[in-house]
## 1
Amino acid sequence: MDTRRFQPEGARCRGRPIGGPGGRGGRARQIWRSGFNMAAARSVNAESGREEKGPEGSCPESGPPGATIPRVKLLDTLVDTFLQKLVAAGSYQRFTDCYKHLYQLQPEMTQRIYDKLVTQLQTSVREEISEIKAEGNLEAVLSSLDKIVQEGKDRTEPAWRPSGIPEEDMRSALVPYFVQQRDALQRRVHRQEAENRQLAEAVLAGRGRVQELRRQGRARQQAWQVSVPGMVPGPRDRLLLLGLVLRGCGVLHVTDPQEL
């Protein structure tokens, strides 16, 4: 089977000079120009037909005068227009001109191949655009941009403009930020100082309670010495007495006197 019969004309004529005698450069250029002009004419006619049809065409619905079309919708329309012009540029006529022998032998297969190619091309382009929109979060970004533009239209005061002096412009932009950070740090410092004061008061209260317990212990010890004249308690007796005093005050919990 001769595979050259199914090769494009450009591939079979690769060995010949394009502009030389016997070459097909001039004819190929004429075919390309005629195909491009036909595709452009079909694209213009299709666009004019869609404009006349109105809502039935693929163009976005025209809103009231002065209404702004969302940028997400503009992006979708741009992709659709690009695909239409891409298909129009690679028309079926140009496809059959490249594969004449295949078209002459099996025109139905050529048509199916072309339809499959166009469908796969459109699907691939739409999938790539969808991935780009998802990765960049374009829908949310474009919607926020529309909102910013709409809010800017409602403003009556003039927008901020640089003064032309870099130091003043930088100062006007950075000073509010630094003031905000300073206020936040001051609030944190005040909260920390309040917590420190509460902790200091708790420590002082604990120290006062300990001193009061010591004073009560000494008073009870002196009262015990007075009640038992002539008896001087030793170190172990003093420790036992102190433990009993602390236990009576609820500070020390001892069940066995030997633990002291």
Note: The chain has nine helices and no strands.
## 2
Amino acid sequence: MSPSALVAAPVLTAAVLLAACTGGGSSPPSSSTPTSVTTTVPSTTTTVAPVTDALRTLSTAVATRDVEALASAETVTRPGSPASDYLKYQSAVLSVIGDQPSGRVEPAGPGSFRVCDVSGSTTTCRVLSDPGFGPDGLLEDFAIDGISVDGRVTSDGPEVATSDVRMQAVAALQTVPAGDLVVVVAVRNLRGTAILVNAFAAVYRSPTGDRVEVRSTAGDDRVDPGGETRMLVVVPNSPVGGILEVPGTSAEFDEPFLVRVPVAPSP
């Protein structure tokens, strides 16, 4: 990583993971495949996951800070739903900032779970509740501290290219309660020379027309020829659905470029 990169992983951990259940704490309860309930009616047998099991599976996966657990939990969510996008967001963040200590999960009332992190003498908790399900019985939506993730999270944005530099918003979330926008951007360098991505100088054009400067970033800013990397940027108090304008240059500083990355799902 070059000296120009602004890396604040300890700060980003508190601001990003879980939005925001972050950092240490004891290991959460062991996770297993959600149990199923079989309901029999005349000539029909339907197997569905209990309501609490789907949200428990998601909450436990988030607390583990483990990419494999997060991927496994996607089986209880409807593909393309806010709940599925949220799990992809968590995995994307971990792909940039690396392994993190596990949190803990505990019941927080009927159908809700408290996910907590302990860092020194400080404990930070968020309550995941209000699960919403599709007609197929898969989890579509839930709330963090009473605020639905629907409309606040996205994944799998379109890949865009400028001057043989390709970028994609892998996942993004407007955090709760701060309202900051966290975006994980994938970068591919198709050039024959190295590039420097100046994510710390990026600007976000919100869907309401506001121009917001990036507050902080993490990740490698140098990408070798034919290489790939991921970067994380934090934009203050902004919703998803805008355009992240990411500048950069060749390693020799003689070929600048600007990539406009939609922070929205692919059409």
Note: The longest strand covers residues 122-133.
